[in-house]
Amino acid sequence: QVQLVESGGGLVQPGGSLRLSCVVSGFTLEYFAIGWFRQAPGKEHEGVSCINSSNGDTYYEDFVKGRFTMTRDNAKSTVYLQMNDLKPEDTAVYFCATDLNENCAWVYDYRGQGTQVTVSS
User: Fold this and answer.
1) CB count, 10 Å around CB of 112?
2) Which residue has the higher pLDDT, 56 or 109?
């Protein structure tokens, strides 16, 4: 049974930082691509970052480049999203997801329940 469980969200002031975690089970993380997505109230979900399994390349949407860093720890079956210089427009529910393929495709078949990130003064 594939499961993804996120944690680490919270309330932070503009310019602050958070580190999200996503623990996976039911599949071997090192063999599959996995991504972070977010969904703001009243908006469609959007991709944030993704990491391939085939070569370890990591991809970021333009709106987070230079601010967010995605990493994976295969031994812990965990992926992380380090978020720095947060902005109010980063407010959303963040979730990790995968379609159990090797390369990033920005689509998913399995996702976690998400963790709320709120950026406000």
Assistant:
1) 19
2) 109
